[in-house]
Design goal:
alpha/beta, Rossmann fold, 6-stranded mixed β-sheet, 14 strands, globular
């Protein structure tokens, strides 16, 4: 499953074929949004549905194919079901008729590998109720709740929703501030936003919009200029910003204009700080200087977009990296949440984009294989800052 363009929390529904996953989703949201059939295997591909959960807000429910599917086509469906685990914030595992075996254990193993919290629901309790033996076996082994449920009698829905709220990480749905602990009320924040071939016509890119809203939420004053107007603005207006946030691509230009005593960073760096992996990024960025001739670098784009001659990930960063290291580096690019082919250990560095269109959990899951394998990771903003001599300055304020 390659879609990851929704930053709302994602909740995956898993289980064997004909365990009533689609019916369960309908009862959970109180309307028929998933196709229901008595035939096993009706859901063939993961299907995303937007819902509203009281106490959490907007969320995405993902209905998956049965984990016990078979045949060549069934194997592909199972593969897609397992791929969903990489993009969810929590999971609901449905069992029926007290069946709990290798299929369920396999899923739980995957959940634990990616630190996915989960709740187990014993569905179709009107056919057979949850036995004390099954409940005891599961709770003792996994220290999780097992809720008996019948979609024809929705009295347990509130208990299930409460358990989802208990297990889902708060940072999956609570918005954290990009700059909240860097500024105070009435501070002035200067945003430098180039308008180049990659800028969407008539709009700003998402990290710029997020930063602008965060400035206003913190009762600060936002001033937005293009990089070509920064010097004129500072010379004509006797204003000293508390913080300057720039597009990473113009670091080389901006660093000579903004006085050293003014805090300077980038949209990509403040987003990386909010999304986690920040310490890994900092240590991984410095590994750029250790790259050798013929090393492989993996560039991860979270979105899919039209490629231009000024493409930041596919053109500019590779060119800057070859020039900075004075080495011939090999590059692979993977966009969206597509699979990374080959062995992650073959790469000497992974460079992740800002990840503004995916969830925090999706970004962390994306980087986990590299981090676990000891492969250094960085992101666009930090890598660019490092190659343009502004890295220590752009991250120094966060260390303080």
């Amino acid at each position: 499953m390659t879609k990851g363009r929704d930053t709302k929390p994602h909740i995956g529904i898993f289980g064997r074929r004909n365990n009533g996953k689609s019916t369960f989703i309908n009862s959970l949201v109180g309307q028929e949004i998933a196709i229901v059939s008595e035939h096993a295997g009706t859901t063939t591909d993961p299907v995303k549905k937007s819902i509203e959960i009281f106490g959490i807000g907007p969320a995405i429910i993902i209905d998956t194919a049965g984990i016990d599917d078979f045949g060549k086509l069934g194997e592909k469906r199972i593969e897609k079901t397992l791929d969903v685990i990489n993009i969810i914030d929590c999971a609901i595992l449905l069992i029926t008729e007290n069946h709990f075996g290798d299929f369920e254990l396999g899923l739980i193993k995957k959940f634990k590998e990616l630190d996915i919290p989960f709740v187990i629901v014993h569905n179709k309790s009107d056919i057979q109720k949850l036995t004390p033996e099954t409940e005891s076996k599961i709770t003792k082994q996994f220290k999780c709740k097992v809720i008996d449920h019948n979609s024809k009698d929705t009295k347990n829905i509130e208990n299930i929703i409460n358990e989802i709220k208990n297990i889902i990480p708060e940072n999956a749905y609570q918005k954290t501030s990009l700059i909240g602990n860097l500024v105070e009320k009435d501070d002035i924040v200067l945003l430098i936003t180039p308008i180049d071939s990659e800028a969407p016509e008539g709009r700003m890119i998402l990290p710029q919009v997020m930063a602008l809203r965060d400035i206003l939420d913190n009762d600060c004053i936002a001033i937005v200029v293009k990089e070509t107007e920064v010097e004129a603005f500072l010379n004509k207006i006797a204003i000293k910003p508390k913080l300057v946030i720039t597009d990473s691509q113009v670091f080389d230009f901006v660093k000579n204009i903004i006085p050293e005593e003014i805090a300077l960073t980038s949209f990509s760096i403040i987003l990386a700080r909010m999304r986690g992996n920040f310490e890994n990024y900092i240590s991984g960025t410095r590994k750029i200087s250790e790259l050798k001739e013929g090393d492989k670098v993996l560039i991860l784009e979270s979105c899919t977009h039209q490629i231009s001659c000024d493409d930041i990930g596919r053109v500019k960063i590779p060119n800057w990296l070859n020039k900075f290291t004075n080495k011939k580096i090999d590059f692979d690019v993977v966009s969206g949440l597509n699979k990374i082919n080959g062995n992650i250990k073959d790469y000497s560095l992974v460079i992740q984009c800002g990840g503004c269109v995916i969830t925090k959990k999706q970004l962390q899951s994306r980087l986990k294989p590299a981090i676990d394998a000891g492969v250094p990771v960085t992101n666009y903003g930090m890598a660019i800052a490092y190659m343009h001599g502004t890295f220590e300055r752009s991250v120094g304020m966060f260390k303080k």
